[in-house]
Amino acid sequence: MTQDKYDVVVIGGGGGGMTAAALLSHAGYKTILVEKLPFLGGRASSYEHKGYIIPTGVFLVLDSGELGEVFKEVGAELRVTTATPQRVRIRGKDFQPPEKGQLKAVLAAAARDQAEADRVWKAIKRGLSWQPPSAEITFTEWLRQYTDNESILGIWRGLWANVVGGLPEEIPARAWFDLVHNMGPAGSEGGYPAGGHIAVWESLAKTVRAKGGTIWTRAPAQRIIVEDGVATGVVVRKDRQDISIDARVVISSALPNITIRLAGENTFDKGYLKEVSGQIRVPFFTIIVGSNRPLYPYAAGLMLGEMPRLSMLTVPTEVYPDYAPPGKHATWFLSAKCSPRHPYDKKAELDMLLRDIKEAFPEYDKAGAEVITAQFFDGDWPGFGAAVGMEIECRSPIENLYNVGDAVTDPAGCVPGLSGAVHTARLVIQDIKRRFRPGEM
Ligand SMILES: Cc1cc2nc3c(=O)[nH]c(=O)nc-3n(C[C@H](O)[C@H](O)[C@H](O)COP(=O)(O)OP(=O)(O)OC[C@H]3O[C@@H](n4cnc5c(N)ncnc54)[C@H](O)[C@@H]3O)c2cc1C
């Protein structure tokens, strides 16, 4: 069965795909987005379980930055209650870094004395303003030249693993400095959307439909149609039928290995296949806890560097009590400290995370706390789509087939996570606008 012709077909309704579809339909391109799951938002969405709102990935959604700009541009409503600033637990004490000079203040709190804090800070400043360190050594190897203080190392193990994905003992030293250049200092902002994370994407979907765009959920792309090295459409399964959609451009926000499967390996060149097969996905682990009393009294939560697994927690019910059943509180715990480069035992990781939670919050049992969900995020539903430095570019070797998402990068510099997915979608839309006008099939 063949559908109408579209200017663009977007595969995947996560942050990257939804941004692309919203910007395209707003600019007048005839757009269809197909999502294989029953809901939109991918790894930045939410669902309900036992009366609790459970995130499918991201804990805090940034309403500032590029996502906020996209909502403004297309006239969609984004209702996020900011839950900042985050606190940081260093040497067993909770501490709220100032808004400006966060890293310097956190360093000072972790250092044994002022001389150590100054030594590390100077090295960082030099790396940022003069010459970043070599990619030949890891970030930890670089930092150990200035300190052996585990609390300082923990700043990067805890805080930065959450933000950029990957461990400082495995990330090339240079990668961290490059990221700070692209992103600015460690972002610990963000908030909770009213109605759960899914509301963000439903709001964007409304604007897509209002502009004549089409969104299908429960509609997995089966195949990207490639003719003579050019993408010309997608075959989608909907209501048990295979539907062929012709389009001038195909944007895939599915992970690059999935996109290759959809288009067929033999349509790509060998170098590209090697790049994509070399990508390492970053695993995250989460435990969502319900309790009769709040486990932590701040909505924005806490970053923890020194614990073996626990790296961050947030408390959405401090902002929206309806994220939990009446009378209950929810605390979301994240571990981003498992190596993506070595085999890991998922059950053991979750056990370690729960052990850390109980150690960090000894009142766990007294507060009537119980695990609502314990999840690992890896494989085709990872924490981050690519370990830092392993992202591929937006244009694929197949003409008119683009990738967007968190496994994709801007050649001018990578932005990680959901912000990266939104950023790459914006880049691709700029490229499409430069190349084709709406209706120019
Ligand atoms: C626990 C956790 C915490 C995180 N915290 C943060 C954070 O604090 N900050 C941050 O920036 N990022 C964070 N991230 C990362 C963030 O969630 C992702 O980077 C971002 O959501 C990725 O968006 P995307 O559009 O690239 O991919 P996705 O959200 O994965 O979207 C891809 C979509 O494509 C669909 N799809 C796949 N195959 C097909 C097919 N054949 N046909 C149709 N549809 C298909 C999928 O179902 C999915 O909906 C976190 C992730 C996790 C798991």
Structure explained in plain terms:
The chain is globular, with a radius of gyration of 22 Å. It has 441 residues and is an alpha/beta fold. The longest helix is centred in the last third of the chain and has 19 residues, at 417-435. Helix 1 packs parallel to helix 2, helix 1 (15-26) runs parallel beside helix 12 and helix 2 packs across helix 12 (417-435). It has 3 domains: 2-82 and 195-279 and 387-435, 3-Layer(bba) Sandwich (FAD/NAD(P)-binding domain); 101-181, no CATH class; 282-377, Polyamine Oxidase, Chain A, domain 2 (Alpha-Beta Complex). The mean pLDDT is 93. Strands 1, 2, 9, 10, 11, 12 and 19 form a 7-stranded mixed β-sheet that branches. It has a 7-stranded mixed β-sheet with strand order 7-6-14-15-16-13-17, sandwiched between helices. The chain has helices spanning 15-26, 65-74, 102-110, 114-129, 139-143, 150-164, 173-183, 198-210, 256-263, 270-277, 346-360, 417-435, and strands at residues 2-11, 31-34, 46-49, 52-55, 80-82, 87-90, 93-95, 191-193, 214-216, 221-227, 230-238, 241-252, 284-291, 302-304, 312-314, 329-335, 370-377, 392-393, 401-403, 408-409. The structure holds flavin-adenine dinucleotide (FAD). Flavin-adenine dinucleotide binds at residues 11-17, 34-37, 42-44, 57-60, 220-221, 253-254, 258, 284, 286, 334, 377, 383-385, 405-406, 417-419, 421.
